[in-house]
């Protein structure tokens, strides 16, 4: 179609980017409107964040995240940011043609994620908020769920979990975190993976998103699990890329904490619009619900298995390791038809 007055492409953008050609609507979330444009004969993408609670903050995060990530040396990790119109919450981006991910997509994804994380600099402090971890309320909800399912936590696990919350709250690191680095927010181009949709960007430890590979993409509609060898390749790719860009090795500690933090967060069982609305862990004994590729109970069972295995690497989570293993067995006994989360991402 020829763009009409409803397309938010104002005079400031026209002056910078030139006259507008054809435009067509693209699929997007309810929080935004997206168009494919023709600008001086080349394709671009225009995204406008819809007015509503938090829209200005999400816009500011996206612009800041894209600008920081745009500094990546060598191959880009995000589309180029061509122009912005803050008054209309509009950004114009380079258009990229993605291709179908390969079976081992998670390896290239992990390397690109490390390069994305490494784009942040000390001077970026304040440009984005700090990453927020689980809270004491999450600890209470998780332990209440265990008791409801007949698995009282071992002595010391409550103190252990509160100590976990404290460690995550002061976790070191100033990496650029995407906030929702999900399948679908990664474009697999001939030149490598590029990330889009930075509305939840923050600064913090990259381990919080490296954990996605093991714990099953906790903020995402598309939960997948990687086989042991493939997961090892992916985590090695992340660590190698991080070392190459920053010159420093990623700490060995902290990954178990990150996975455990995602386990106890009830909001990691629902899509963004339903977070911070109720205790989602408390819903699980009486109901299950599907979000994307898995149900809430499938997500919980997967995460319990991951943490039961990971926590043995550290004495700080030894009680949680026991509880996670016992609770996973109780979950599978109570709901024996639960299937593992899928290995393959949808096309």
Could you tell me the strand content as a percent range? 5-15%
Alpha carbon gap, first and last residue? 28 Å
Sheet with most strands: 5 strands, antiparallel
Placed side by side, the strands forming the largest sheet appear as 1-2-3-5-4
Count of extended strands: 11
Seen as an oligomer or otherwise, the chain set is: single chain
Helix content: 25-40%
Decide which structural class fits the backbone.
alpha+beta
> What is the N-to-C order of secondary-structure elements (H for helix, E for strand)?
HEEEHEEHHHEEEEHHHHHEEHH
Indicate the topology:
Blueprint: H1 11-17, E1 20-26, E2 32-39, E3 42-49, H2 55-69, E4 81-85, E5 90-94, H3 105-117, H4 136-148, H5 157-169, E6 175-177, E7 186-189, E8 192-195, E9 202-204, H6 207-210, H7 212-215, H8 228-246, H9 255-263, H10 280-283, E10 290-291, E11 294-295, H11 296-310, H12 318-334
Task: Give a verbal description of the structure.
The protein is an alpha+beta fold and 347 residues long. It has helices spanning 11-17, 55-69, 105-117, 136-148, 157-169, 207-210, 212-215, 228-246, 255-263, 280-283, 296-310, 318-334, and strands spanning 20-26, 32-39, 42-49, 81-85, 90-94, 175-177, 186-189, 192-195, 202-204, 290-291, 294-295. Helix 3 packs parallel to helix 8 (228-246) and helix 4 packs antiparallel against helix 5. Residues 1-5 have low confidence and may be disordered.
Put the structure in a nutshell.
By secondary structure, this protein is α+β, with helices and mostly antiparallel strands. The protein has twelve helices and eleven strands.
């Amino acid at each position: 179609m020829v763009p009409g007055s409803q397309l938010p492409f104002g005079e400031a953008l026209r002056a910078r980017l030139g006259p507008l050609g054809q435009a067509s609507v693209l699929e997007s979330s309810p929080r935004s409107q997206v168009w494919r444009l023709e600008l001086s004969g080349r394709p671009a993408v225009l995204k406008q964040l819809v007015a509503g609670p938090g829209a200005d903050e999400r816009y500011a995060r996206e612009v800041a995240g894209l600008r920081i990530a745009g500094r990546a040396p060598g191959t880009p990790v995000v589309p180029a940011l061509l122009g912005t119109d803050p008054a209309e919450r509009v950004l114009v981006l380079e258009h990229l043609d993605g291709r179908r991910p390969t079976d081992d997509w998670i390896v290239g994804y992990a390397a690109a994620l490390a390069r994305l994380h490494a784009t942040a600099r000390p001077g970026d402090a304040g440009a984005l908020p700090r990453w927020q971890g689980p809270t004491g309320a999450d600890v209470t909800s998780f332990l209440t769920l265990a008791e409801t399912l007949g698995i009282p936590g071992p002595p010391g696990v409550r103190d252990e979990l509160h100590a976990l919350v404290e460690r995550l709250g002061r976790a070191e690191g100033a990496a650029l975190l995407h906030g929702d680095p999900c399948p679908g927010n990664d474009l697999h181009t001939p030149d490598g993976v590029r990330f889009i949709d930075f509305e939840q960007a923050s600064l913090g430890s990259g381990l919080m998103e490296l954990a996605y590979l093991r714990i099953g993409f906790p903020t995402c509609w598309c939960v997948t699990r990687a086989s042991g060898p493939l997961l090892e390749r992916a985590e090695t790719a992340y660590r190698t890329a991080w070392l190459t860009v920053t010159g420093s090795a990623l700490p060995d500690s902290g990954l178990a904490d990150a996975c455990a933090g995602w386990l106890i967060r009830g909001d990691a069982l629902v899509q963004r619009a339903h977070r911070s609305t109720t205790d989602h862990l408390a819903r699980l004994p009486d109901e299950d619900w599907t979000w994307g590729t898995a149900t809430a109970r499938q997500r919980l069972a997967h995460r319990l298995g991951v943490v039961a295995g990971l926590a043995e690497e550290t004495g700080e989570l030894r009680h949680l390791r026991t509880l996670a293993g016992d609770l996973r067995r109780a979950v599978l006994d109570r709901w024996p038809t639960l299937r593992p989360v899928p290995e393959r991402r949808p096309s």
